[in-house]
Write a structure and sequence with these properties.
Four Helix Bundle (Hemerythrin (Met), subunit A); 2 strands
Amino acid sequence: MTTDNLQVQERQPAIISYVKDLPNICSLSGLFCTILAIYFSITGVYYAAMIGMIWAVAFDWADGLIARKMKGRTGSDRIFGGQLDLVIDIISYGVTPAILILSFGSFDPILLPVAFFLLAAGAIRLSYFSTFGLSDSAKYTGLALDNNSIILVLIFLLESVVSAETFLVILSVSALLLAALNVSQIKTPKLSGNPRNVYLLAFYTLGITAVYTWKLL
């Protein structure tokens, strides 16, 4: 092993050291909300799952706002935070809605293609963004995955006004349409990049939380 390699290794911070970074703490808080959403989806407490899903988005947007306002973050801090976001996004916006639909459909195997398409679209979307980033017009190519959860928690309000069979079709079709938009060539604005939108999402999150908490009670 050369001296240069030893010096590179010595400069590498400990893996766990990135946990103390405030934006990463925020990202991990969103991951915790995602785990709650998955748990409540599997156990059939769907209203609680909706609360977990929207709070995951809120933390996801907040970590970017915090990161932009923080001073003194290094290049490695930004790279690590970006990679952490990508990993969490596939769980929050790919795995979670797939499990939600499977659970609501009593894990009928016929829904497996729907779940696969959601996950595949999410993985492709994130891989494309990781490769090319924003388009020349500072917009996303394809619908950003976080919009899926924002829309799905609103659509889930229909669950109490139509039959379970009808709503499963509505939920599945809606999720598939969103997934198709995720991998489309449409240009969409980076909503989370505007502080005003972050605050609007905060109000939306509180409203959704209040509605589904009332339904739980």
